[in-house]
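Quick one, T. Sequence first:
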Amino acid sequence: TEFGDEIVCVTGRNSKVEAVGVTMQYGGTKIVVPVQFSYSENPTVTKFKPINSFSSGGRNITVTGTGFELIQSFSLMVHAERPESGKLSSKTFVGNCVTRLNETTVVFSSLPILEDPENYNITTIILMDHYQLVVKNESHSFTYVADPTFENFTDGIKKQVNKLINAKGSNLNKAMTIDEAQAFVGDEPCNIKTLTETDLYCEPPEVQPQPKKRQKRDMINNLPEFIVKFGLREWVLGRVEYDTRVSDIPLNLILPLVLIPMIAIIIISIICYRRKSQQAEREYEKIKSQLEGLEESVRDRCKKEFTDLMIEMEDQTNEINEAGIPVLDYKTYTDRVFFLPSKDGEKDVMITGKLDIPEARRQTVEQALNQFSNLLNSKSFLINFIHTLENQREFSARAKVYFASLLTVALHGKLEYYTDIMRTLFLELMEQYVVAKNPKLMLRRSETVVERMLSNWMSICLYQYLKDNAGEPLYKLFKAIKHQVEKGPVDAVLKKAKYTLNDTGLLGDDVEYTQLTVNVYVQDGGTDSTPVKVLNCDTISQVKEKIIDQVYRNLPCSQWPKAESVALEWRPGSTAQILSDLDLTSQRDGRWKRINTLMHYNVRDGATLILSKMGISQQPEDNQQDVPGEISLTCTFCIEQCQLKPLTVCQSKRLCTERKCKTMFRDVALKPGIASTLLLIHGF
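Structure tokens:
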């Protein structure tokens, strides 16, 4: 209590929030103050930031709470304690560095305490008049951590050649932010850009500052110190030396040396840019002209291709209308669908149904077959018979196909009964797949008799539809694709084509070719020629196939001759030459021979070719001897038939050059001055 003009007293505790009267006793006199004194709620702390500080202190702690307007004095107290030798050792630190911002916010400066705060149990308390409040919230309390450590500069001097100064240390950002940390170069601040746990980067002043006045006596070469300040503690890491090499050059030399090259470079760049622009414009006009020409050529080509396509479509339509759709008769169709190809062909017993049975056993076998036919009409017998066969391990997939096809033929006249048998077997098959929990695998492969029966049954049902509806568009599609593929080169070995619809069968090589139209005469086929379109890159076998396809288009395909069974003869004027894939004129490439083409024989557009049946088979050409030049030979065929004298034979063509003799020599083996025996192939 203080006395004077004013009486100051300290209030005591009150457990209630209320207004009370004030009574003052002076000696024996009791005076009642007319104004009541009010007790309010104790102040509280709702939050504080930051939550920690280095042990050296000096970090601003912003405390937010309620009831601060009633407080007359604030102070901060830190209580540290730890057990030592069985006793509790404690230390207390008190400070009054407080700034009141408003009625709800107060800023404290953290107190400097022990150097090893991790070894103590520290409690931070705010003293508000005589009321003590621990600084904590629901999740954490205010803590202290040990001061960071910095590494001094090497040799005490930092060469400043980059824009940033780097200071290394540890625990730098444990209780400090980039906004709170401070760095100085001499008296000038160093703007901190980055602060991590181990590095501090700051941007120094552009010009080397002067050292602090109080340190000039101690500085070497008058260099400023680099100082880092965290809170109340400072670290002097060394001195900073700026790179002054550029500044040593006079300004009147720097400007000409920099500006003149820059102006020259700009002028040269403008000139080059204009030249490049003019060149690019000329190139653009050139390319534009080329594109216009290309567009024109593409346009003309499209018109020509479209016209050719329309003509080809009309020709194809006329050919199909003239020749008709080649549809197999029902028996041939079923024979090919039901039975696999056999070496016996149409004479296979599966197709003819004629058994080679001795006459003595014929009656017994026929009686047994009739009885077996009666058993097939029994549904229970037939189903059990099929199950029994399928359970046999020796009953292979091929045998199942034959059995199902034979059963289809046997019951062909009773399709309703056949369908009932197939339906019963299918229901059993479905139950098996359902039990095995693999219904999606059903009908993937024909592993059972009933699946093959279903295939045969669908073939029977589809025949009339294929004949009346689907056959014609499918055949037209086949002819169109075949025509399109044959318009370009086709590899005779790999079967790759330029105009294929399958990308895997696309011919990658760019082959130059020309379309030719040849006139074909057929031996013993009249005097009229048939024009056939071929390519000069076609092999002889491919030419034969195109000729056969065109000449015999009105006949069934089964009556067409094979390409291997016919010979092709070219008559360039008065001479004749047999064309073949391989002969003595074939070009060799190492161990390989190139297959002959029309280009190899130099066959031109409008050439005349003769198609005839092949005579006696030729021996392999590798056994033939190449005799260069021209040799006079006695052709026995010519002497006997034409009554001619010895003829001159050209070994490269291996043909008798006499116009009346159309004989091809098969082999020539001569010794000087001696005529050899000649084996001749006739039939031309």
